[in-house]
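re the bet — no i am not wrong, look at it urself. input seq straight from the record:
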Amino acid sequence: MLILVATVGLTAVASVERVRAATAEPGLAGVFEPALPAEAAERQAGIVDLASGNHEAVFGALEGLGGRGFFGAVALAGGEIPITSFGDEGYTRLFHLPFSGFNVEPQAEAVAVQPDGKVVVAGYSQDGIRRPDSFAALLARYSPDGSLDQSFGTAGIVGERPEAPGGTQLHDLAVTPDGTILAAGGRNEDERGVGAPAGVLLAYRSDGSLDTAFGTGGRVTVKGRAASYSTLRAVEVLASGKVLLLGYLNHRVLLVQLDPDGSPDRSFGGGDGKVTLDVRTNFCCEPDALALAPRGRIIVAAVGGNYRRPRTFLARYLPSGRLDRSFGKDGVEAPFLRRRLGVLLGVAVGPEGKIVTVGRTEAKDAKHRGSFALFRSLPDGRPDRGSGREGLYSLNLGPEGIAGAALTLPSGILIGGSFIQGSTTSLLLAKLGQ
């Protein structure tokens, strides 16, 4: 059954351009395709991150998927219908970067909502079309009406022009209870920059300046070896005020926990605030994903293993940073070959404790690059064989689709992404009930 969620204090469009009943995939409450503005469709924009807002609103960060950058956000009532009172019919308007550059484009990766309703989007500026090789951190903050917040940075934007190969890319955002904006990413991830790769966490005050009281001058850096993949891909602020980070260090999965001031949490892991998992990624720049489970437990999803037959691994940690031996095999479960979920981009834990990983199916050929897909596992890590096709749901609505993010809602899990058919790109949202 398709259920539309009522909203309070928001103006939403009366109908979605196309709404499909997910009859081919029992368990999906509905599949929604909001129309994209012309500029976003031209850049093949898709949802790469989701965040909850006020009054049942959900915000999605929009990135360019076709080799071109795109930087923006969409506001959705109940995770389904664009909110017309936000920005331009539910979408933020394109902006001009406050620095020049012939080939410089912005690219979004993450979105977060402040307690006051302001929306922060983070990513990077990139120099070079189709194969960019220079990057710089980029953030924008929007007022609740979708306009750029003039009190943040320069006319709502914090960033600088990429100057040399390498640089910093931001991948995730979180906001602390006192309003500090935390942005996690990597420096010289693809090893083309000057200096060794490193994971970076930047802390910003409400005005967009670095919070020098956090970490070292507003930064926390996790340095990797030369010629390695080292980065931070996810950040969560815990109820205790501590900060949890996920990424890679020298190609291996890394968890880091910080005290609220950005110093290492010595009670986590082996005494230095770090934990590494013996799952190795073979490529730059694979994502991994983080979700919080009941009783303070931590779910990590990552791709690794054999070079020719990699798998999607799930691991569960206790709040202390030790593997939860009651999960999978001694804390780690690799229940399905990567051919079931060819690309991993997100993970969420449902209200009932089941785990959902999202991405797309493995590419069949050059014309069929994979479908919008999600995989559901039981709370102990085993595949939920009673869901979808032995745990797998895929929506083949075009030659290329991808699920970019998952968000836990009281009613279930919202999955956001896109699909491409010919010259047409559409947003795609699906709800997976309990």
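see?? Helices lie at 38-42. told u. also The first strand starts at residue 18 and ends at 20. so pay up
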